[in-house]
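Q: Sequence in, structure out?
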Amino acid sequence: MFGRRINLFKLLGFQVQIDFSWIILAVLIAWSLSTGFFPFQVEGLSTRTYWIMGIIGALGLFISIIIHEFSHSLVARQYGLHMKGITLFIFGGMAEMPDEPPSPKVEFLMAAVGPLSSVILAVLFYAVYSAGVASGISRPVNGVILYLAIINVILAVFNMIPAFPLDGGRVLRSILWGMKGNLRWATRVSASIGSGFGVFLIILGIFSIFGGNFIGGMWWFLIGMFLYSAASMSYQQLVTRRALEGESVRRFMNTDPVTISPDTTLNELVEDYVYRYHHKMYPVVSGSGKVEGCITTQQIKEIPKAEWGQKRVGDVLVSCDVDNTVRPDTDAIKALSLMNRTGKSRLMVTEDDHLAGIISLKDMMKFLSLRIELDQ
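A: Exactly. Output:
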């Protein structure tokens, strides 16, 4: 779901990251607030003041979303669930949980606490706003505080819509899961509702744009697209996790992969291996059988063709590390997650500094397709 991320800070053991898409969101929110919301709510101020209010309002929303997601993470930790951290992206945030909740009760509590935290924030901001009105605080400051009260109410209400993967959809899934005891069925139903709601928002956005409300229509359209995609992806992720659950890399790996000697020139590598086998990554193994690392077509591209005849693989290989190597007993889900994070479609499988095999995304997907077909 995410692209490139930036680590912001660590709080209570949770790593908070920001996706590059958040920059787009921050600009859009600041623009929407400074040119639409605040001029309508607080009239007669300068353009500069409206932009300052818009930027502060966007930062306040940023903090509100972090608190919302932290509440999910804290409840998850209370029930022994490992949380990778919190990532803020273009349409909000997500507490990243590598595994599904162990029971409907845990999912219900985890989902419900997010909107509850937003309601509490809304009440606090409105109390500050009311005190500001009574004490005569400046209109720009009070305008931003009122916006934060309103936006937290909107966050709470919107998130409680029973459309997966929104919190309300997760609450619905927990109820369906508890009723039937079937997580996959509950996910399929709630994700279908989420996809349908996404389509509804897309249509609403189109009508709003053609009706003259360009800014509002744009937001509805983009949020609808995101929800539709996220709902479908959430169900696919569950199916994938269930199909690969308990399987180790050993089951999928090719135990007789094509390997390269460190003394091979790049020219020989391209002509005799890349054009013949069509792989993008090749393990580099010494004469003693020890795996030295790997070389990819991307590395080759970065070296001028004129040097391919002189440069040897051993001069440019990448050593074995946690981003390109797994063990035979590694869980298949972890290997798939590593491929997703690094963008690699092939990983080396090593044991005692020797190459045990190669695990490829293509082989895993073949197994997954057959497994799902037989299960259905």
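The first strand starts at residue 5 and ends at 11.
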